[in-house]
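go over this record:
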Amino acid sequence: MPVPMPVHAYAAPAAGEPLVPTVIERREVGANDVLIEVKYAGICHSDIHTVRGDWGPQSYPLVPGHEIVGLVAEVGSGVTGHQVGDRVGVGCMVNSCGQCTNCRNGDQQYCAEGMVGTYGAVDRDGTITQGGYSTHVVVDADYVLSVPEGVDLAAAAPLLCAGITTYSPLRRWGAGPGKRVAIVGLGGLGHMAVKIAHALGAEVTVLSQSLKKQEDGLRLGADHYFATSDPATFEQLAGSFDLVLNTVSASIDVDAYLGLLAVDGTMVNVGAPGEPLSLNVFSLIGARRSYAGSMIGGIPETQEMLDFCAEHHLGAEIELIGADKINDAYERVLASDVRYRFVIDTATLG
């Protein structure tokens, strides 16, 4: 009989209720599994949306967290890519069908049967996945990533979501030398987008509601910084960019931002607003522009991102907190009062 492992965690008992300490059970380590002692877990805005039921009904109690880093504590008999003591990470997914065209191409996030999210999802064995706000997690080895030594472990946690969410479109749409890139928003996603776009060699402009974070933006690698609350910004920058990466999860005037693109430019949405966005198709037709979306990245690209960040000594700007501050952190995220990502020290969960 398999013997599940009890571990300490923080869970939402119901929609809208504060997270509380709890004990959950992790499955026994199978042949292709890795048991990870979680050291740090990032807090993503999507954690808050999910546990509060904003994106649909959930199965409670629910342990969130899909920005997970730690050390390998045990490996299954068939695992060859990871060893006890290795620095590893787990991002937004822990399984997929592995057989569809997208999975075979390394785009597991677009699995035709639906990827299995790190928490709040039905795993292949029928259980509900529980996330990284816990002391340990058991994950299929194919979804465990190596965290290189060049990145501080705590600062690496947000790379598993915010890092790959911005790296993937920046790479796909060719951010690099000679390219003019605008980053909309300087939050958890946006600050990583600035760092990565700068490291890729692009000319980087931040478009933020106000200039209050301008000093940060320039320090993180932006060449220019403009306030979108000033209508003159959209006149001054019309037709200026090859790529606009929208990281905000709020309603925006899509047509205004599309007007910032040069001929053949692309605007990519990675922020996920709760309501539909609309546009005038002439904003696209008039300059052969494109409007696109992107969601995290597959396992190979996520590993590529981690290696890139290690090479360029990039990590998230973080505020490290104890588990007793999780609920406070949620309120501060909603108030945009964090620069730029909360990370939980999971040693405080026990």
Observations:
- The longest strand covers residues 33-42.
- The longest helix spans residues 188-200.
- The chain has a mean pLDDT of 96.
- The chain has two domains: 5-161+297-348, 162-293.
